[in-house]
Alpha/beta hydrolase (Mariniphaga sediminis), 397 residues
Amino acid sequence: MEAGKIIPFILVVMFSLQTLMAQNYDESKVGNYRLPELLKTQKRKTVSTIKDWEKIRRPEILNLFENHVYGQVPKDFDDIAFEVTNLDKNAMDGKATLKEVAITVTRNQKSVSINLLMFTPNKAKKPVPMFLVINHRGIKTMDITRQNKDGFWPAEEVIEAGYGISGFDVIDVSPDDKVKFREGVLNQLYPEQLEMNNGMRALGAWGWGAARAIDYFEKDKAVDAGKIISVGHSRGGKASLWFGAQDKRVAITISNESGNSGAALSRRNFGETVERITNHFPYWFCPNYQQYANNENKLPVDQHMLIALIAPRAVYVASAAEDLWADPKGQYLALTEAQDVYELYKVHTNLPAEMPDVNEQIIRPHIGFHNREGKHNMTPYDWQQFIQFADNYFKRH
């Protein structure tokens, strides 16, 4: 590095370290906070029936998240086409069938293609449930040759358990970059969204891409399209929750260490904050969200309300004990606060008031949680818990 560039580089590193150290990791300093009322409409009417939830309060909350956090997600397009570009019925030494599917979506005479990768177990006698991963870790993570076996996407273990596993690289819809995120769905299909303060940005685009994958699954006889499991880690976990909240075709929504603006309560003064995340990753969210930096109490929503939008479908939140940045306790508290909506549907989740011990999994009807030992990642241990939860859930549904 040139001498003249060393000092600026050092200053940037020091600033970054100071910012990280400035975040609170002391529970005694969290302070008091008041969450928006989940079952009170904007006209202050108490919601006590499924009808009022589905017709009034749920649409209100969905609209608030669209306008203030993630941006609206357009549903219209002119055409969608599917092409199986690669088929191997003898993958994984005969245990699985591999398909690569080009999903091409056209709007206003412009097109975007998503490359969907998927394995289904050959031993299956009927259509299988499908794990769908919103992958921001790069295509090598989902190596279809299986020469690179990454615990982030443990295809062999999932196939052995009788499930399908699939995924797409978010670069196909919106690159994970503060400049290049426009390239793809946004500038090609929905350029008007970029002009809106409540317009779709990267996280919404990733969920939009996942929805197009389900459009394909509904055509594939090897897949049980009524048993789709959305999975995302970190920023992908944020997208998974927002996607699962909107698309009722998702049977189980899994958020792995999604943290701030994912599963963790925003009003808790712990770990990452709205200020930090909107400063470093503004392109994940609609521009309106930036006004809540250091101003979380003015947010008309909090993340327990996002989880509640998924009810009565299933949701699983995973954390890691050393990932304090993502606030494991804040994620668990959001789950507990969402329970009131499940109760409307007579789903009695009965989560313990206190977060479970490290490596202790909680499985309740429609809700699951674990906080494993270790750092920020998605590991085979996490996947074992996801599979166990899905087994339990689908046995009853």
